[in-house]
Design brief:
- By secondary structure, the protein is an alpha/beta fold.
- The protein folds into two domains: 36-152 and 238-257, Rossmann fold; 163-233, Alpha-Beta Plaits.
- Helix content is 35%, strand content 22%.
- The strands form three sheets. A six-stranded mixed sheet has the order 2-1-3-6-12-13.
- Helix 1 packs across helix 2.
- The N and C termini lie far apart (68 Å).
Length: 258
């Protein structure tokens, strides 16, 4: 009897796990659809002849795919400026025209994603480690459109997601101490497929830093960047953002502008 009950319990557990896996797959499919919808809306802002900044991340990947498949745009007239090695590889694979920031210092429009977005259009970026180049490309742009799904929305950035800080390796400990003085709890980002730290496209390390309170986002962004040894941090105050496109499950596409 006990063996029968044990086997029955095993079958029940297996059945529950299958249901959970199906639910997870459904959630992933729904999330992908939202990413595609926000990317599709962003595509409507792209015009022939533009110098186009291209950010990084999973939603931007969908935008690149849709841009490459567009039949209404003259793709050879659009110059794409990548913000990461990953994005550059995707653009090359999609046969899109590639440019460099040193060639085209003024960008008409940048399309990028975000890890978190607050109600005032401030962002946390850098989950993929490309924050330094992403901020440079954004700062060089006339307009910046951020594309996200509703899961990235938060009331406030503090405590919602660690702020990545890109640091010179030799300054790691010094910067950690300085971030602690600002109220942060830094943690070195470790690599997934190698021993040791994650290394950015620029050869630097990342300190993912938790802040439970951020009274002034623009001020903290500046204070972190003023630490010697820091190249950039993942706080993007709303001064850089023109509009945000949010794909939702119940309200469709929402466009927020400053």
């Amino acid at each position: 009897m006990s063996h029968f009950m044990s086997y029955k319990g095993y079958l029940m557990t297996r059945s529950i796990n299958k249901i959970r896996k199906r639910c997870d797959n459904m959630k992933n499919d729904e999330k992908l659809l939202l990413k595609q919808k926000s990317a599709q809306k962003a595509l409507s802002y792209v015009k022939n002849g533009m110098v186009l900044g291209i950010g990084s991340g999973s939603t931007v990947r969908e935008f690149i795919r849709l841009l490459a498949a567009s039949s209404s745009l003259d793709l050879q007239s659009i110059i794409c400026i990548p913000s990461s090695f990953d994005t550059e590889s995707l653009l090359v694979k999609a046969n899109l025209r590639l440019g460099r920031l040193n060639q085209f210092s003024k960008i008409d429009l940048t399309i990028d994603g975000a890890d978190r977005v607050d109600s005032k259009l401030n962002l946390i970026k850098g989950g993929g480690g490309a924050l330094l180049r992403e901020k440079i490309v954004a700062a060089a742009s006339k307009e910046v459109i951020i594309i996200v799904d509703e899961s990235k929305l938060v009331k406030e950035l503090a405590g919602s997601y660690p702020i990545p800080v890109e640091v010179l390796p030799l300054a790691k400990v010094f910067v950690e101490n300085a971030l602690q003085k600002l109220g942060g709890k830094p943690s070195l980002r470790l690599a997934a497929n190698k021993l040791g730290a994650t290394i950015t496209d620029n050869g630097n390390m990342l300190l993912d830093t938790e802040f439970t309170k951020i009274p002034d986002i623009a001020k903290l962004e500046e204070e972190i960047n003023n630490i010697p040894g820091v190249f950039e941090n993942g706080l993007f105050s709303n001064r850089l953002v023109t509009r945000i496109i949010i794909a939702t499950t119940t309200k469709g596409i929402i466009v927020k502008e400053k």
